[in-house]
Structures are given as C-alpha cells and as structure tokens.
Amino acid sequence: MKSVAQLINQPLIGREASYSPSEPIKQPIEPKIAMFVDRLFLRLKAIFPAWRNAFDSEQTYEEAKVYWLEALVNNGITTAEQFKRGLAQAELSTSPFLPSVGQFISWCQDEDYHALGLPNEAELAGRIQQFMGYARYEEHAFRYRSPAEYWLLSTYYRHNWNKPEDVKEMAMRKLLAEAVEKVKAGFNFPAIPLAIEDKSLSLDITDVTTRGMEKIRKVLRSNNDRI
Prior knowledge:
Layout: H1 4-7, H2 31-47, H3 58-74, H4 80-92, H5 101-109, H6 121-132, H7 147-160, H8 165-184, H9 205-226
Helix pairs in contact: 2-3, 2-4, 4-5, 6-7, 7-8
C-alpha cells in the first residue's frame, strides 16, 4: 500500500487510452499534509467498520486518498488541529460507513463553540428555551457560560421573542455565527448582570428582634401598672 505522497504524481486510474486525468490540484501540497491524510485514513478505518463498502478494490482506495487530499487542501483543511476536530466529530457518528469527504470537511470546519464560551448549534435552541424563563425579570439568575453567551441569548430575546418560528430559527443561526466572529475579534461583551439587592424588602434581623423585645417590655409594664 502506497502513501499519498507517492501517489499524487501518478495517474489515478488505469492506463486506458480514453482516460483523461482529473483537474490539477489547485493548492500546493506540503509533504506533512499528505502524511496527515495517510494517518487520517488509518483512523477512519478504525472508526468506521464498514469502510470497505466504499471501495471495490485496492486501486479505488488509493485513488480516494488522493481525492481526499486534493479536496481537503482546496478547502483549507491543512492543520493538525482541524484534523483532530474532524476525527472527534467522526467518533461521535453512529454510522458504520465511511463519511464523504464533504462531510468530513464540515466536521473539520465546525467551531469549538464551548472553547469560545458559546453553546454549539445543537444546544442553542435548548439554551434559548431555558433562558426564556429568566429573560424578563431574572436575567441575573440564569447561569451563562460567558459574557458572549449572555450577549447571544439576550440579543436573541430582545429582537425575536415574538417572531414566527421560521424567523426565530434563522435568527438563532445568524446570531451564533455573529457571536463566534465577535469572540474571535476580541469584542468587549457587556458584563453578565448581577443580582441587585432590593433593600426595601431586606430585613435586619437584629432590628426586628430589638423592636419586638421593646414591644414586649411595653406590654409587661402596662400589665404591671394595672395590678
């Protein structure tokens, strides 16, 4: 079995006279990227037990590695961190079959929302639903991941709480993407609101006790005067 680096300069399919090679790779390929793809396929084979269903021969398997390399490079998937992100998502898949290169690219491109202090796309609707119970009067009581999440949830509520469902869904995705960009740009998010003590409702236990004892003394003095 050859490595991707050995294959990228060879014809991909047979030697038939009618064969015309695929489009040339648009981006230059560094040797380390080709090595990433070799290791990637070893991991994918371990994660997806039905991987053989995607290939009818050793030749098509080798061709796929070259095709994946081209697609990954052309879509900017060239770092170890991106490959790790894609593999982490692959490990969460319940399918036994090898994903398409497009699916894997989308996994590599997925943001690590939690590292940015935000809910991911799957969690967002649930977080908004939870926040709705606090939004009007108890924003301070909600447990936010970060100021970025506070901005996301409060902004969504202010502008979309009474909108149609289809508008809400679009707004959720748009605001999440905007929050990601703001975090990356170092945006100074507003601070998470703190609870404001309502002094009119607070009770000084010492004061209450003192006043209570004074009333008792007055009652006792009044009773003594009557005797």
